[in-house]
Write a structure and sequence with these properties.
- The chain is of the alpha+beta class.
- It has a domain of about 150 residues: Gyrase A, domain 2 (2-Layer Sandwich), CATH 3.30.1360.170.
- About 40% of the residues lie in helices and about 20% in strands.
- A hairpin with a 3-residue loop joins strand 1 and strand 2.
- Helix 1 packs across helix 2.
- The radius of gyration is 21 Å and the shape is elongated.
- The structure holds flavin-adenine dinucleotide (FAD).
- The site of flavin-adenine dinucleotide has 9 residues, from helix 6.
Length: about 230
């Protein structure tokens, strides 16, 4: 099976992945109105002091006004990235099924400059680039393994083995696809953890794109999150 199509409006991430904001029902005004309902007040438009209110809510961790909105993302990423992503329980996922659909031959291969070694102790690793020859060699070995795994997968399928069993030979570098729906409060928690120094580089690349899309939809909330030291409410 050949590579899947990249949908219109997608932002490329890694070598074969993407993020696309499929839909959003999100605005800074929703935060303000959720907070002001305590005083039976409702606004049609933002007013100058509302920026301060959003900052106050965020700094003081009044989190619930940030839950009255929704972002739906369409994502293609390697399975090992999705394994980290799916740990974020305050959100909803639906994933491409390799039981029902034949796997594609798309596998993550890091760019030369992203091939790295880890230095230091668990919990405090730093990552350093490797010599170009080693980076080439690592990439070649990864590619060979991916191709061999996909050849075995195909031969199992062609021999009549069920897709749900044949997929077990595929590596976690295989690309998968999913829809992810999340509100701004849980999204800020995700960003604080995944668009962060300690996060693995590959999920961080996705989180950077997600953060830009969030900032476009809810600029004042995003600015308040950054000003609060990226601590989610
Ligand atoms: C750098 C890094 C390294 C990691 N390493 C590991 C690892 O080695 N092994 C591993 O298993 N995981 C690891 N994780 C995953 C991590 O433990 C979390 O599962 C993941 O980051 C999701 O965070 P969360 O629970 O805050 O998010 P969500 O599940 O979206 O939850 C959001 C918030 O809701 C609240 N909440 C949700 N569920 C509960 C609950 N059951 N009880 C109480 N409060 C709840 C918490 O306040 C939580 O912060 C790592 C994550 C990062 C960022």
């Amino acid at each position: 099976m050949t590579a899947a199509e990249i949908p219109e409006g997608s932002i490329p991430v890694l070598d074969r992945g993407f993020v696309r904001l499929d839909a959003a029902m999100a605005s800074d005004l929703s935060v303000v109105n959720a907070a002001r309902v305590s005083f039976a007040r409702h606004k049609q438009e933002m007013e100058p002091d509302d920026e301060g209110l959003i900052g106050f809510l965020l700094r003081n961790r009044h989190g619930t006004p940030f839950e009255h909105n929704s972002f739906r993302f369409h994502v293609r990423c390697p399975i090992f990235v999705m394994r980290e992503w799916i740990r974020h329980r305050w959100s909803s996922f639906n994933e491409f099924s390799m039981r029902y659909t034949r796997a594609t031959d798309e596998f993550y291969l890091p760019a030369l400059e992203d091939v790295r070694r880890q230095v230091g102790k668990p919990g405090a690793y730093s990552f350093e680039p490797v010599e170009p020859e080693l980076a080439e060699q690592a990439r070649a070995e990864m590619e060979k393994t991916n191709e061999a795994a996909y050849a075995t997968y195909n031969s199992l399928i062609n021999a009549g083995i069920a897709r749900e069993l044949a997929r077990t030979v595929l590596p976690v570098a295989a690309y998968t696809e999913f829809y992810w729906t999340v509100n701004a409060r849980a999204l800020m928690n995700f960003l604080s953890l995944r668009n962060a120094e300690a996060a693995q580089l590959e999920i961080r690349r996705y989180a950077e794109v997600i953060e830009n899309l969030f900032a476009e939809q809810m600029p004042l909330t995003h600015a308040a999150f950054v000003a609060a030291g990226r601590t989610p409410p």
